[in-house]
Amino acid sequence: EIVMTQSPATLSVSPGERATLSCRASQSVSANLAWYQQKPGQAPRLLIYGASTRATGIPARFSGSGSGTEFTLTISSLQSEDFAVYYCQQYNNWPPITFGQGTLLEIK
Amino acid sequence: QVQLQESGPGLVKPSETLSLTCTVSGGSISNNYWSWIRQPPGKGLEWIGYISNSGSTNNNPSLRSRVTMSVDTSKNQFSLKLNSVTAADTAVYYCARWGIAGRPGWFDPWGQGTLVTVSS
Q: Which of A1, A94, A99 sits opposite B45 (nearest CB)?
């Protein structure tokens, strides 16, 4: 099973600033990685797939990068609606499909 | 635009079977893979398994012996059964489309989720 590790667990950033979230895989997942945003009481929302392709309707301030075992989600200028929990997910080696434990992005 | 909606009992007794259905609207269940994912209160996401429109399945090894999934293409629905439940199975259960055009990958879209509590 591929273990996905996200860091930090909690990230405190001010609105308008840049946020950088990390995801590490226990072995290479190539570029088969997705990012999701989840707000309280809501289902996760797909942001990025293929490590760097934005999903339909996702603002350009969200960008993904990386391949192999190291991945980054960057939010270039935080808006109030961006404060949420973010998860990474690998789909290279399965079963099982695995998720990271999540990063809480909170307002500083 | 494809939308998904979970339905089923919100309370299940320990040792009994949890049964949920996901109804797909706005598109066909054919030529896609469909998954179940769960999230215990305050915790992260766990993939349960997938089913294709043809009925082929694969599950998380941690749950494999307790999980059964089925598909009803005539109703555009797929279903999950999890037997011998315990309090550890209490979670919000989501259904989602897995990948695109029959190729496994990411989950999109998701249903709104349904909370299932295991308690006597």
A: A99
The single-letter code of the amino acid at A81 is E
- For residue B11, what pLDDT is reported? 97
B3-29 pLDDT, tens digit per residue, is 999 999 999 999 999 999 999 999 988
Minimal CA separation from A90 to chain B, in Å: 8
Q: Which residues of B touch A73 (CB under 8 A)?
A: none
Determine whether the interchain pair A34/B94 forms a contact, defined as Cβ–Cβ distance below 8 Å.
no
> Which residues between 65 and 94 in chain A have a beta carbon less than 8 angstroms from any beta carbon of chain B?
87, 89, 91, 94
Average pLDDT over residues A54-64: 97
- Residue B82 phi/psi, 5-degree rounding, is -125, 115
Is residue A97 within 8 A of residue A3, CB to CB? The reply is no
Q: Contact at 8 Å (CB) between A52 and A14?
A: no
Contacts A102 to B, Cβ<8 Å: 44-45
3-class SS of residue A104:
strand
d(CA A95, CA A108): 38
Q: Taking CA atoms, what residue in B is nearest to A96?
A: B60
- Average pLDDT (B38-66) is 93
Distance CA A101, CA B89 (A): 18
| Residue A93: per-residue pLDDT | 93
> Tell me, what amino acid is at B62?
S
Give me the pLDDT at residue B31, please.
Answer: 79
Please name the residues in contact with A3: beta carbons below 8 A apart, sequence gap of 6 or more.
A25, A26, A98
